[in-house]
Amino acid sequence: MTDQNRASEIARILKKKYPDAECTLNFKYPWQLMIAAILAAQCTDARVNIITADLFEKYPDLEAFASASQSDMEEDIRSCGLFRNKAKAIIASSSMLLERYAGEVPSDMDALLRLPGIGRKIANLIMGDSFGVPAVVVDTHCARITRLLGLTSHSDPVRIERDLMAILPKEIWTSWGHLMVAHGREICKARQPVCEECPVNKLCLYALGVKTDLRGAGDA
After folding, report:
1. FRET pair for 5, CA 20 to 30 Å: which of 11, 87, 93, 124?
2. What residues act catalytically?
3. Beta-carbon contacts of residue 218 (< 8 Å; ≥ 6 apart)
4. Which candidate, 187, 176, 151, 168, places its Cα nearest to that of 21?
5. Residue 203 and residue 214: Cα distance in Å, rounded?
């Protein structure tokens, strides 16, 4: 079985296992997803959703975020960690959206990467979940599980993204990341994958005992 066929079959099985797998950050508008994603760095989505429930009420639009003071924003998001840098990025990116993009979040990678605090992971998340543009989000769950499955030998997120784009059908790109999060939380846990309960264990190199160093694999 080729990697392409194996990846497609893994996605099919996991979609059946996790039919409701989707973005776990709460948002209504693309700019809200941008802000939530900035907050999610080294913070759980559950904690971010608690923060944004109040944050989006206090700051109902981009103008409100752009005009917020650094000190006020820091206080509002303090519980998510790295709050000083995140506050700076949120205010700056909101201002740039208003000044350069007429208050609209762009839907292409190059423009998104110009926004403060936005890297490829967040850009792909926005493209896929706000605009329906096929995009592969490589977070820690995706990177780890994709290596265990034997679909990449890299640890660098950009190289993992390229590997997945080469073997996954475009219609699976966006859902792949969500499936990896769901699977990583329920079965393929970071500390100890429960391989005997995994529905794709016969398609996973780690579960099959092949290349068992993949859990800590680096770039070759």
Report:
1. 124
2. 121, 139
3. 154, 155
4. 176
5. 15
Residues 118, 79 share a domain = yes
Q: Do residue 144 and residue 124 come from a single domain?
A: no
- Greatest C-alpha distance within the chain: 56
User: Model-level pTM?
Assistant: 0.91
Rounded distance between C-alpha atoms, residue 62 and residue 147, angstroms = 38
- 59: domain range? 30-131
Percent of the chain with pLDDT over 90: 93
107 and 120 inside one domain: yes
CA dist., res. 4 & res. 189, Å (int): 24
Looking at this protein, which amino acid is placed at residue 49?
A: N
CA distance 179 to 210: 23
* Token output for 76: 């509002």
Q: What does the alpha-carbon distance between residue 209 and residue 125 come to, in Å, rounded to a whole number?
A: 32
pLDDT, one tens digit per residue, over 170-209 is 999 999 999 999 999 999 999 999 999 999 999 999 999 9
One-letter amino acid at 138 equals V
- The verdict on 197 and 210 lying in the same domain is yes
* Residues 142 and 168 both lie in one domain: yes
